[in-house]
Design brief:
Helix content: 10-25%
Number of domains: 4
Number of helices: 13
Radius of gyration: 32 Å
Structural class: alpha+beta
Strand content: 5-15%
Distance between the termini: 63 Å
């Protein structure tokens, strides 16, 4: 049972929302009760007792159901003691763990001394819970007094302030209403709002912003006036004293949502065509998402998570259908049922809805030092950065090496939030959540460790290979063994995660690492938007190198070791690690004696031949490797894991 604290009364000496007459009745003085105190210890504070008109000095007097009957034929009938000048709201939930309730009825006026309500909608539900809410509806000529009940075509908006997400975190007052609403010609029929920073600037709605994109667009500058860096003219707008979340106006003005030529979005809308947020009072969904009166349901709560985004990003409103990639074999598990305990990923982990811009990762014809910077779709996000300066070769960063980046610049800073040991609290790495093509029980890799520039070898995701202090010369591969665009700026070039991990669909399909039919969420589209046939990794031999994923960037024949005919039928994983992000031995070489098992094919280290390796600036010889493939490589080399 609940009461909604929506009372603001003129005869109220201490301004606590309880009328003086009621306080005198129960305490002897006009200021004898503290609104937030629970004098009788029944779980309802004095303000709640006033709204329900129960006795604040008697713990047997509190707002509760008096009768309850249920049949599968008619449903549930609830009865409760009602009081004059009150209205009631009835909500229902099938899950008390999440406490997500759907509204069944609101503004139900009191029929003293007893009200009843029959819920036939859930007569087939064998387990559920009802919640009753009471509110004051006395005619004091105040905002709260009028708008606690339905007034002609206008619904009881005060109820919105008890929804899952809402403005005003404490008892809503008439002054809270005035923070947004201009009341000069209030009864003329139009909603008139004023700018929180410059109150003389008015926004007059002449239509319904839920059905008119023109009307909804009027609300964007109104919303941003509070959701800027200084709230309402430098102060908190509401009585709760909280400053609104900052939504940078210039970021929004340049965002993909605001600038879309076909479907530009405003703040306010129906959630499917021209805006994301519903009533500015409160919503049954998180983040005040639209529509306000339809709660997201268990167990997936999709309507306030990925399902909300896919209302548009399924090819119906947004041109590109992102939803298709989330049904592919390897994907980010945005659906709750696919997420492991304590692990989740949502669209907003990779995209800022208010700052993301159009475009994608730019696969330029020239690889430069700036290639690892974020593309438009991931701008405006918080990320994690790592200070590697004190770490050794293949040393895992600890908590003290991490820092939060308010506005991420590089793509890896976004990926670190889920794919680093910090994201699983430096404990046991979690299992992978979709098939990886080689191992039936995969575990996630700490990419903050794997891409460390302190390692002997790696792909240049953090910085160019010339900046790897522990790597032996030559640090980068020679241009002669690289495919375009990687055959220029060797040593200074960088790459981003999307260079390997992306959709397998050709443009104009949505690009990005949402999902792929390929193992490891690998790309299959490279230059000139042509699908590659080189998708196999890591179970590939040198003689079939052209089919390996590595062949999209690396050339085989110009390398002496690879050109050796004795190696033609050897698998790549017999010499190299199978997670080629970065390693402890130069040139991503393996070591079947001491390297972690996850770096071996199928986690079996003894099928790896390499034991130790010596990097050279010249021609490799049999002495460069210690390996078990033949008697030619028996002598120990200089590097091992």
């Amino acid at each position: 049972m609940e009461t909604a604290a929506f009372a603001e009364i003129e005869a109220d000496s201490d301004g606590d929302g309880i009328p003086d007459s009621w306080e005198r009745k129960h305490s002897g003085t006009s200021t004898g009760l503290v609104a937030t105190a629970d004098n009788d210890g029944d779980g309802f504070n004095n303000l709640n007792e006033w709204i329900a008109n129960t006795d604040p000095t008697n713990n047997a007097s509190f707002f509760k159901t008096e009768t309850f009957t249920f049949t599968t034929a008619t449903g549930a009938t609830i009865g409760w003691n009602s009081q004059s000048n009150r209205a009631y709201s009835i909500d229902f939930s099938t899950n008390l763990v999440t406490s997500t309730f759907s509204n069944l009825a609101s503004g139900v006026l009191a029929t003293y001394p007893l009200n009843t309500y029959t819920d036939a909608t859930h007569k087939a539900v064998v387990c559920g819970a009802y919640k009753l809410r009471a509110m004051w509806t006395g005619s004091f000529g105040t905002c709260i007094g009028c708008h606690s009940i339905t007034q002609g075509p206008n619904r009881a908006v005060v109820l919105d302030f008890t929804n899952l997400s809402h403005h005003v975190a404490v008892t809503v007052t008439n002054n809270d209403c005035k923070a947004c609403h201009s009341l000069g010609i209030h009864q003329a029929g139009s909603t008139i709002l004023h700018n929180a920073d410059t109150p003389s600037t008015l926004y007059i709605l002449t239509g319904n912003p839920l059905t008119s994109s023109t009307e909804a667009a009027k609300l964007t500058p109104f919303c941003l006036a509070c959701h800027d860096a200084n709230g309402a003219g430098g102060s908190a707008p509401f009585s709760d004293g909280q400053m609104p979340a900052v939504r940078n106006g210039s970021d929004w003005a340049s965002s993909a949502h605001a600038t879309n030529a076909l479907h530009p979005l405003s703040c306010y809308g129906d959630g499917t065509t021209f805006g994301c947020h519903a009533t500015t009072h409160g919503s049954s969904k998180a983040s005040m998402l639209a529509p306000h009166d339809m709660a997201a349901t268990a167990p997936n709560y999709s309507a306030q998570e990925e399902g909300f985004c896919l209302n548009c990003h399924n090819g119906s409103v947004a041109v590109k259908d992102v939803s298709a990639d989330f049904s592919k074999g390897t994907r980010h598990p945005i659906v709750n049922s696919e997420q492991a305990a304590g692990r989740s990923v949502e669209c907003t982990d990779c995209h800022s809805t208010h700052a993301a811009r159009a475009g994608a990762s730019v696969y330029t014809t020239t690889a430069t030092a700036a290639r690892n910077q974020l593309g438009g779709p991931s701008l405006g996000l918080v990320g994690w950065s790592v200070d590697y300066s004190t770490l050794g070769n293949f040393e895992a960063p600890s908590a003290g090496n991490y820092s939060v980046v308010t506005n991420a610049t590089y793509q890896y800073q976004i990926c670190f939030k889920c794919h680093s040991a910090k994201s699983w609290s430096f404990g046991t790495p979690p299992n992978g959540l979709s098939a990886n093509g080689t191992n039936t029980t995969p575990i996630e890799t700490d990419i903050a460790q794997a891409f460390s520039p302190m390692n002997r070898a790696g792909h240049p995701v953090i910085t160019g290979l010339s900046n790897y202090p522990n790597a032996f010369t030559p640090k980068g591969l020679p241009a002669s063994v690289m495919q375009p665009p990687w055959n220029v700026n060797v040593g200074t070039q960088t790459m981003d995660c999307n260079d390997c991990h992306n959709t397998d669909s050709l443009s104009p399909a949505a690009q990005g690492p949402h999902g792929s039919a390929q193992a490891f969420m690998l790309r299959t589209v490279f230059s000139n938007n042509v699908a590659t046939t080189a998708t196999n990794w890591p179970n590939v031999t040198l003689s079939n190198f052209a089919t390996s994923f590595c062949a999209n960037c690396h050339l085989k024949g110009t390398h002496a070791g690879h050109a050796n005919g004795n190696h033609a039928n050897r698998q790549c994983y017999q010499c190299h690690i199978v997670i080629p992000h970065g390693g402890k031995v130069s040139r991503l070489m393996a070591d079947h004696n001491t390297m972690p098992a996850r770096y071996a094919y199928n986690n079996v280290t003894n099928i790896t031949y390499m034991v130790s390796f010596t990097k050279t600036a010249g021609t490799y010889t049999t002495a460069s490797c210690q390996a078990g493939c033949s008697g030619n490589h028996s002598a120990a080399a200089t590097e091992n894991w």
